[in-house]
Structures are given as C-alpha cells and as structure tokens.
Amino acid sequence: MSDSLILVTGATGKTGSRVAANLTQRGFAVRAVSRRSAVPFDWNDATTWQPALQGVRAVYIVHPGLGFDGATKQVGDFARVAAAEGVKKAVLASTPDDGSEFSQAMRAAEHHIVSAGLHLTSLRLRWFFQNFSEDFLLQPVRSGELRLPAGSGKEAFVDADDIAEVAVAALTDDRHNGRQYDLTGPCLLSFAEVAQEITSGAQRALSYVPLDPATYVAEQVAQQVPEEWAYTLSALYQDIANNKLAQVSGDVEAVLGKPARDFSTFVSAMGKTGVWK
Q1: How does pLDDT run across 118-148, given as a tens digit for each residue?
Q2: In the chain, at which end, N or C, are there fewer CB atoms within 10 A of the end residue's CB?
Q3: Residue 10, number of CB atoms within 10 A of its CB
Q4: Would residue 218 count as lying in a domain?
Q5: Same domain, 215 and 242
C-alpha cells in the first residue's frame, strides 16, 4: 500500500484531518479533500467525485449526513464510481448497530459499499473526547455548565486520535478488510463524571445540569442553533440518558496493540493548552 494513493474525505473534520496527518507522517501518498481543497470534493456534486478518485486505491469515507435522507444513496453511488476508478478498499466512519432507523441507514450504506465491489472496514464510532475541546460542547465547557438532556446515562466516549490510528491501520493493512470495529474509550462516563474529570484534571470549574428535552431544545434555539439540529442533538442525548449504547469494546486495543486513551489523560493534555480558558 505504500506506493498507493489514499483518498481522505472529510479532511477538515475531527477524524479526517487526523487520518490525513497520520498517513502523511507515515510516508503514504494522501489526497485530503473537502469542498475547498486543491482537488475539490463535494458530496452534493457528483462531478467532483471522479477527479478526486483518480489514482486512488483506498478511501476513508466520512459523510456528514450519513443516516439521513439521501446520504445512503450518495455513498452507494460514490462507491460505484470509486470501484470503476480502481479503488479496492474503503474505511467508513459509521455508528454502532442499535436497531434504530438511523443505524439501519448506516448498515444500508455499508451494504452498498460492499455491493459495489470494495473491501470494507466499518468503524462504528461513539462520542468523541474532542467534542469538548473542538466542537459543540467547547463553549458549554468554557461557560462552566453542561446543560444537557442526558440524565444520568453513560457513554463510552472515545479519542479521535485513537479512531484515526485505527482508520490508518485499516487503510494500509488488508488484514482489516471485511471487519467491523466498535471503537470506544476504556470506560463508561456520565456527563456528571465528565464534569468532575474536567474540574479536577484541568482545574476548570464545570458542572452538569440535567435538563428535560423540551427545555434543552428551547435553550438551543434561543442561542441561534437551528431547530432541526437542536432536536437531533436532543435525541442523541436521550439515547445516552437511556444507556442505549452503554457498552465498552476492546477493539481499539485489539487493532493498535495498546489500550484506548482514557478521558483523564485527554483532560490533562487539554488543560495545558488553555483551550478551556
């Protein structure tokens, strides 16, 4: 694989950027794409797909709308274009199989990729540590309050760096073809425990305030968050409240030969950067 070009979609995102950087550091030829990259790529513009896939042998697939209307078909269409261009394998950023319509759409996307003739490795991801340092939970941490409708439920938060390392292994080693990996951190955490970890590990006072879903959505809309996105997030938090995926997997360690990074280590590192000040 060292002499083959690897396409990384979602190259400006939390996992895509890390996958591209990791591959580059290891000496692999990488084409990291987004709508603004030198070779532009847009899921909603199929004319950009074939140029991005030229000369590519493996692709990391991140679709921001996967699980929602139209995205499953787009992934299937993209996989067929990729196969026609000579791509051999795909690694998909996916979600666990919890029986929901959302996860059924994910399984359909995986099926389309395999049906197109590509070897697939499915990475079934949980909530990222980096949601608290790079994304929609950063500002709540800075404010000192996590006001969320997650009750006392727990989630197996995972480090995006671990995800990226597993993705690189899957992209560059055929032993991972056809596998599904459930990528989690080493333990379950509630949002109250997250707040305690950040308070003690980063010397950043943070409390967790459990809300009912309606109050959460109203507060988000008042903060100019689009209503549809507020309802989507509320549903995800309620899944955590219901402990829908309160299980820990050993797949990160099985692939990488080292334990998944724990949240306290992440908090200590982030505290030193000043990101939460």
Answers
A1: 999 999 999 999 999 999 999 999 999 999 9
A2: C
A3: 22
A4: yes
A5: yes
**Whether residue 133 is found in the same domain as residue 242:** yes
SS3 58: strand
Helix axes 101-115, 71-84, angle to 10 degrees: 10
pLDDT digits (tens, 9 = 90+) for 226-264: 999 999 899 999 999 999 999 999 999 999 999 999 999
3-state helix, strand, coil split of the chain in percent (to 5) is 45, 15, 40
Residue matched to tokens 């996307």:
109
**Count of CB atoms situated within 10 Å of the CB of 46:** 12
CB atoms within 10 A of CB 272: 9
How far is residue 116's CA from residue 125's CA, in Å, rounded to a whole number? Answer: 23
Q: What is the pLDDT of residues 6-40, one digit of tens each?
A: 999 999 999 999 999 999 999 999 999 999 999 99
CATH number at residue 67: 3.40.50.720
Residues 6+ apart with CB under 8 A from 87: 7, 53, 56, 57, 58, 59, 118
Neighbours of 247 (CB within 10 A): 13
Which pair of tokens denotes residue 132? 């608290």
Domain that holds residue 39: 5-125
What's at 26, amino acid-wise?
Answer: R
202 with 69, same domain: the answer is no
